[in-house]
Amino acid sequence: MMEETVDLDPDSIVSRVLRFVESRGLLQGGALVVAVSGGQDSVCMLDVLARLRVHLRLELHVAHLNHMLRGAEAESEAEQVGALAEALALPATVGTIDVPAYRARHHLSEEVAARYARYQFLVGVAGQVGSGRLAVGHTADDSVETLLMNLLRGAGLAGLRGILPSREMRPAQLGPRLEPGDWKTEGFPLSGGTLPVVVRPILDLFRTETEGYCRARGLRFWSDPSNLDLSYRRNWIRGELLPLMNSRVAGATDRLRNAADLLADEYGVVSGYVDRLWGELARVGEGRVEFDLEPWLGLSMAVQRQLLRKAVEGVAGSLEDFGRVHVDGCEAVILGGSVAASFELPGRFRLEKGYTAFWLTGPAAPPRAVHPLPEEQISLPVPGVASWPGGSIEASIVRAGSPSKPGEVQAETWNGRCDGGRWEACLDADLAGSPLAVRCRMPGDRFVPLGMAQPKKLQDFLVDEKVPRGERDGVPVVATPNGIIWVAGYRIDDRFKVTPRTRRVLKLRYEQL
Questions:
Q1: Of 9, 130, 146, 469, which sees the most CB atoms within 10 A?
Q2: 476 pLDDT above the threshold of 80
Q3: Which residue range is the domain that position 431 belongs to?
Q4: What gap in Å lies between CA 459 and CA 443, rounded to an integer?
Q5: Containing H/E element for 324?
Q6: Domain check: are 419 and 390 in the same one?
């Protein structure tokens, strides 16, 4: 890394950016929104892309937002960005948003409110011009600073990759929706529709290089005085920690960037496995991710943490404020013995735990789905399926046989469940009787839980099983004229279990949506 601004050949910078964007497949022609703050990095990016627009078949559109945080100075910058776009013969959208009012209304920090407003503005511009990509001016220095910030807050492997060359935006990154009164410009763009992909064309450059490029090209840029405020962790890393590291270890910044690149490659291997598990285990809804506890507890701690981070990133939009203390807090709730426990996360996100599952929600998430329960019992044909609120129960007949015949239920080794674990049950079809029905629990319900000799009140059984009060009515009960045969997901009646005398096995399966 160059430690101070030096003279350089602007054409060599353009060639490097071209090689970078082509090797990463970042730009594919067509409309491209370029976010220009007016600082050296975004001004350099805009000028380089303008010089490459014919070669890359790009239709550039400049976007700049005045956050109303720095008075006349911010207004001057907005005017200068508009003038720069005009000099390059590029269309531009310059917007103004009352971030202080937006921040106060939603009780956000200034930094978070500004980021939410900026992304909503840029997404809106992208929608107006029909661009599926949004270029931002992050550099190699930003990537190294992000790595150190994530390391200091206890991030995992994903956070130590620094900044990636491209990334799909998520709705959670937009935060609470701006209102028309927040806009101080006419014809404000609405942030709706498909979200663009964020690309970083100059991520291979250092700030000394973007500044050198601007000076060599005679480009005017502005420095945000808030970048000198060391009370912000990123500014402290940039202004004190990294210079100290470079003074003690030659090329420390370069080494850290190389480490981030290596970790990104290795994370790609890990994420493939995690993505497969995610597809099998995660139930994703609007502003919500939910997991069943039973399969989760069978995973290694390292895999649990990767899935947890993926869930937080999916709901919150980033892992920026999610550190080791939050990982530990979530694990304490998930692995603890308490039912209906919860843990608060930054940004008004929340992890909650029920008896059979836990879920992560954001401030904009709708309430957890509550399915209306049937007032009468539902007939369950054999073979056949009965619908149940939030799922279904399937019944079939299989034979009881010997170990030499695969697929048959072995009475000698059966432990009260089928291969599907708690969501399946196998019973003696002749002892259970017919017809079958599925219903909610009723006052006075009793059955003989497997392994017991005497009947027990269903109410007492559910209490002993630590089923939360609000979930007890929703537990499906499968019954025949002979009585309850299965409390779905929990226990069969001992009187109807499979024995060596069993000839026909009734197999039940509870499928939750």
A1: 146
A2: yes
A3: 378-512
A4: 8
A5: helix 324-335
A6: yes
Please write the tens of the pLDDT for every residue from 477-489. 999 999 999 999 8
Convert the pLDDT of each residue in 220-241 to its tens digit: 998 877 777 888 888 999 999 9
- Is residue 478 domain-resident? yes
Q: Residues in the chain, how many? A: 513
Torsion angle in degrees (nearest 10) through CA of 74, 75, 80, 83: 150
Q: Are residues 196 and 92 in the same domain?
A: yes
Phi, psi of 285 (to 5 degrees): -130, -170
CA nearest to 349, candidates 382, 383, 312: 312
Residues 388 and 326 in one domain: no
Question: Is the pLDDT score of 406 beyond 50?
Answer: no
User: pLDDT tens digit string along 160-189?
Assistant: 888 999 998 888 788 889 998 899 887 888
Residue 246 has pLDDT above 80, yes or no: yes
Describe the chain by its helix, strand, coil percentages, rounded to 5. 40, 20, 35
SS3 assignment, position 154: coil
Any idea what the Cα angle at residue 467 is, between residues 376 and 482, rounded to 5°?
A: 45
The whole-model pTM stands at 0.65
**How many CA within 13 A on the CB side of residue 69?**
18
On whether both 305 and 166 belong to a single domain, the answer is no
Cβ atoms 220, 106 nearer than 8 A: no
Number of domains in the chain: 3
For position 346, which CATH number holds? 3.30.465.60
